[in-house]
Structure formats: C-alpha cells, structure tokens
Amino acid sequence: MTINPLPDLCLVPTGCYESCKPDTLHAPQDPNYSYQWIKDGVPVAAPEGIADFLIVDMSATYNVMVTNNITGCDDTSG
To answer: Where do runs of H (alpha helix) occur along 1-78?
Structure first.
C-alpha cells in the first residue's frame, strides 16, 4: 500500500478578508495539479474556474479544490 500526500493548501488564505476590487486568489502552483474554484459552494465555470488563480470582484466564500493528477489525491481549502 502507498500513502500519497495531499496537495499542500497551506498557502491558500482562510478567514475573512477585506480587499480592493478586483483581487486575485492563488492556489499552490504545480504542473501536476488541477484546480476547481468554488464560490459559495458552487463550482466556478471553466475556463476561470479551473486555473491556478481566480480574479474576484465580489464578496463571497471562495475555496479551491486541488487534485494531484499523478496520485489522484485531492484536498479543498477552507
């Protein structure tokens, strides 16, 4: 049995923030990762929703699910 690590989401901010609009959220960058941004519990449509960053201009709860395409392991921020 092999235990693979989850993608490292420690760099994704959590909690409440006030920022200038628009703002850019970043996920950990890795060529082996794929991404799905989630806004208020709903996946953001492609192509914006599957990039390693998301430009936001409205207040909402944002999360990102990151999948390691080699191991199949995924994790969601928040």
So the answer is: none
Q: The pTM is what?
A: 0.79
CA distance 45 to 30: 21
Biggest CA pair distance of the chain: 47
Residue 13 — very low, low, confident or very high, per pLDDT cuts 50/70/90? low
Sign of the alpha-carbon torsion through 28, 10, 15, 71: positive
Q: What gap in Å lies between CA 6 and CA 18, rounded to an integer?
A: 29
Distance of CA 5 to the CA centre of its chain: 17
pLDDT for residue 34 is more than 90: yes
DSSP 28: P
